[in-house]
Amino acid sequence: AQSVSQHNHHVILSEAASLELGCNYSYGGTVNLFWYVQYPGQHLQLLLKYFSGDPLVKGIKGFEAEFIKSKFSFNLRKPSVQWSDTAEYFCAVNARDDKIIFGKGTRLHILP
Amino acid sequence: KAGVTQTPRYLIKTRGQQVTLSCSPISGHRSVSWYQQTPGQGLQFLFEYFSETQRNKGNFPGRFSGRQFSNSRSEMNVSTLELGDSALYLCASAAGTGLSTDTQYFGPGTRLTVL
């Protein structure tokens, strides 16, 4: 069965620090990969997604993620975080035409 | 364009009761998915509907059911409520044919508390 692991449940950083949130999945076939974000008091929204092509994907607000097939990973990165990046981040995976599986989320807290 | 709307936003029920939650997708979207979000289990997929047909189903008991109407609005029903059903229920809509290729747009959720 597919599964998604987000290694860090809670991350605290200072503004301008670099960010990397880990995401690993277990599935041997072709997958689609997503990062969603939920800002305080707001709806869950798509940050970026990977279906095929360039494994380095750029999303909104300066975020990017790299798909490394050999490591079954899709880590989220941002070179310099801002206080407004405080949110909960969810990695998600689905095999083509199958249900989507979410990780349990990482709460990111940015200190001003 | 109006976003995904869910009603009601908050609901309190007692064990054994049943509940119906409603979701109106973004205009023109034909796919609606439902998720259960809890602190312990995170976001778990319940089911997905497209053109009034259930296309995918998660690992939930038969007490959880849903349907989609011809205008793409969807409802989910939970019968014989248990304490563990307390959660935020999220609805997401997508434009195209399925989960794999389309961006999902989430609603604000319905917070269900079972006493």
Characterization of the model:
The complex is a heterodimer of chains A (112) and B (115). Chain A is mainly beta and 112 residues long. Chain A is built from no helices and twelve strands. Chain A has strands spanning 3-5, 10-14, 19-21, 24-26, 31-38, 44-50, 56-58, 64-68, 73-78, 87-95, 100-102, 106-111. Chain A is globular, with a radius of gyration of 13 Å. With 115 residues, chain B is mainly β. Chain B contains no helices and eleven strands. Chain B has strands spanning 5-7, 10-13, 19-24, 31-38, 42-50, 53-57, 64-68, 74-78, 87-94, 105-106, 110-114. In chain B, the strands form two sheets. In chain B, strands 2, 4, 5, 6, 9, 10 and 11 form a seven-stranded mixed beta sheet that branches. In chain B, strand 4 (31-38) and strand 5 (42-50) form a beta hairpin. The termini of chain B are far apart. The model of chain B has no long low-confidence stretch (mean pLDDT 92). The interface between A and B is medium-sized, with 22 and 26 residues.
Structural descriptors:
heterodimer; A: 112 residues; mainly beta; six-stranded mixed β-sheet; four-stranded antiparallel β-sheet; B: 115 residues
Task: Produce a short descriptive summary.
The complex is a heterodimer of chains A (112) and B (115). With 112 residues, chain A is mainly β.
